């Protein structure tokens, strides 16, 4: 595969990038909780003190034929682990095949031998250079070394049983899809889960085990799902009561609807989490062939019906795979990501991005396959696409949850297509997009006025193509913001001459109002720049009651 076919002038060295990212990333992440078991409290994952820990993970692949975490032939393990943490991810979903835990002759193979048997001499040379201390470890020791390195950087780990037989996943007929398939013997699976749960008992940063990736295929059925997933959950819990037990749905983990009328029956509580996978291609090419407002509404409602309802029932929902082609050329993916981010922020979901991996040693018969969904580039030494990463960094921030209530609930005005929020420098400057941590608290009143908490200011329309402004006479239709379109992601108000306009941003990220675009039917245009999500948060806004007096002074100056 081409290694650097994209315009490399846009690829930053990691060090520069980290500075760049930190300008946008919220540094007040919840503690990574590297040292203690996690629990569930209703829909939230919490630490021992009951405080929310939002899982903001990245998937790291270690289940392909070599059974070695990808990238170790390109960068030192500790450097990769440090990068993960520096990019604001607090956790890794680390994949593994059952055979690693049940086939001793595989598990005891050295990393060198494993590559050798596949003819991957170049990877051995890379490992020798970057990870000489790993190359002669056994496969299971190498896996443990990865977990341990992540631990040393305070990165939590979810052990994800991805397949039984090492290799790329997933298809309906790969023999790894459902209980009873050629490579999916329930007893062997239980044995493997028990072994891994036992092996990592007492390893502090291993906070969860995801029992099986993407159940699927002709054999899938609800009765067996309950029968075996309950058995698996009990086996893991009795071997290692510290870990969260994470259960995948049917149909490639897109469907948990069968839990709406039947509950999982377990002997333990406070440890159960459900996982969901949601990609652009989960809905074929719907995003590119339909109107994005209508598709976003249809898809988001489906996701809520098939999985999101679990939150209302008091279960955590971990979107353990989502992601996009980071080249930015896949329109289906681009449109999907904006909608995904709006929903993920609104519901404040726990998640794991697919994927960290920039390239694979060997995937589907290809040596050195490029991974366009990867955060890192082919060489694992640069960020593939900083703007995609910046968007995603917006949801690393926990907006609410137990222990995070610093103030009364309010809104922030989130702009998914940039991952930024509406912010202001002062009361007189134009509003722009900036980091959500720098946002004021907004109230959306029953009169549909968007007002800055602790002030008399509200958001107002000036005219078509003009910056939105803050005013203090908030009774006219220029201050009344309707949430419109099927996606409910457009904020519309009227100019003084009665023209309906939508909140938008210009090329300098100044918040303006323009004619509303592609509200329905039209599939050729992308309304993404006009999508704003009002997100509930209890985190301290830039301006809260303690600074109210100051704001009144500022108001005096502004007047
Ligand atoms: C166990 O692993 C070895 C080494 O990869 C392989 O040759 C063997 O076929 C495996 N055994 C089973 C039962 O899968
Ligand atoms: C990064 O992704 C954006 C779309 O999100 C795209 O416009 C841009 O060209 C991509 N950059 C690179 C270097 O691939």
UniProtKB/TrEMBL annotation:
Pfam families: Cellulase (PF00150). The keyword Transmembrane applies. Keywords: Glycosidase, Hydrolase, Membrane, Transmembrane, Transmembrane helix. The keyword Nucleotide-binding does not apply. InterPro entries: GH, Glyco_hydro_5, Ricin_B-like_lectins. Residues 77-356 form the Glycoside hydrolase family domain. Gene3D superfamilies: Glycosidases (3.20.20.80). Signal peptide: none annotated. The chain crosses the membrane at residues 7-27. GO terms for molecular function: hydrolase activity, hydrolyzing O-glycosyl compounds. GO terms for biological process: polysaccharide catabolic process. Belongs to the glycosyl hydrolase 5 (cellulase A) family. This is Glycoside hydrolase family 5 domain-containing protein. It comes from Morus notabilis.
């Amino acid at each position: 595969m081409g290694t650097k076919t994209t315009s490399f002038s846009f690829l930053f060295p990691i060090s520069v990038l980290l500075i760049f990212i930190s300008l946008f990333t919220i540094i007040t992440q919840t503690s990574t909780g590297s040292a203690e078991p996690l629990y569930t409290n209703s829909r939230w994952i919490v630490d021992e003190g009951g405080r929310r820990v939002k899982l903001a993970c990245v998937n790291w692949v270690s289940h392909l034929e070599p059974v070695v975490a990808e990238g170790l032939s390109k960068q030192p393990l500790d450097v990769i682990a440090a990068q993960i943490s520096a990019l604001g991810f607090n956790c890794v979903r680390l994949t593994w095949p059952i055979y690693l835990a049940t086939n001793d002759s595989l598990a005891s193979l050295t990393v060198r031998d494993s590559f050798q048997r596949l003819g991957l001499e170049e990877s051995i040379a890379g490992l020798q250079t970057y990870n000489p201390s790993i190359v002669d470890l056994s496969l299971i020791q190498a896996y443990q070394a990865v977990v341990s390195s992540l631990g040393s950087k305070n990165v939590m780990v979810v052990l994800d049983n991805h397949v039984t037989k090492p290799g790329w996943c997933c298809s309906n007929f790969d023999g790894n899809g459902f209980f009873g398939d050629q490579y999916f013997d329930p007893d062997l699976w239980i044995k493997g889960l028990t072994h891994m749960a036992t092996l990592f008992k007492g390893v502090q940063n291993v906070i969860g085990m995801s029992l099986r990736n993407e159940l699927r295929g002709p054999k899938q059925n609800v009765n067996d799902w309950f029968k075996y997933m309950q058995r698996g959950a009990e086996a893991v819990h009795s071997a290692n009561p510290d870990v969260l037990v994470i259960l995948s749905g049917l149909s490639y983990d897109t469907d948990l609807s069968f839990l709406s009328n039947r509950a999982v029956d377990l002997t333990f509580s406070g440890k159960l989490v459900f996982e969901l996978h949601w990609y652009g291609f989960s809905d074929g090419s719907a995003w590119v062939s339909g109107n994005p407002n209508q598709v976003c509404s249809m898809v988001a409602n489906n996701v809520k019906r098939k999985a999101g309802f679990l939150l209302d029932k008091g279960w955590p929902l971990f979107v353990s795979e989502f992601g996009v082609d980071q080249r930015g050329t896949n329109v289906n993916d681009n449109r999907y990501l904006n909608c995904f981010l709006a929903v993920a922020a609104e519901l404040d979901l726990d998640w794991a991005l697919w994927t960290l991996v920039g390239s694979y040693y060997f995937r589907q018969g290809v040596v050195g396959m490029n991974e366009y969904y990867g955060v890192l580039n082919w060489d694992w030494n640069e960020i593939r696409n900083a703007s995609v990463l910046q968007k995603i960094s917006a949801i690393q921030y926990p907006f609410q949850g137990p222990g995070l209530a610093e103030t009364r609930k309010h809104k922030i005005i989130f702009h998914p297509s940039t991952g930024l929020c509406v912010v202001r420098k002062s009361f007189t400057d134009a509003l722009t997009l900036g980091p959500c941590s720098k946002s004021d608290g907004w109230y959306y009143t029953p009169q549909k006025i968007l007002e800055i908490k602790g002030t008399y200011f509200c958001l107002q329309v000036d005219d078509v193509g003009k910056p939105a402004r803050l005013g203090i006479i908030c009774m006219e239709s220029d201050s009344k913001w309707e949430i419109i379109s099927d996606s409910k992601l457009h904020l519309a108000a009227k100019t003084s001459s009665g023209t309906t306009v939508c909140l938008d941003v210009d090329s300098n990220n100044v918040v303006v109002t323009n004619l509303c675009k592609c509200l329905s039917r039209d599939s050729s245009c992308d309304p993404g720049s006009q999508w704003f999500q009002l997100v509930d948060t209890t985190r301290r806004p830039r301006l809260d009651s303690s600074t109210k007096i100051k704001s009144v002074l500022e108001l005096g100056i502004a007047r």
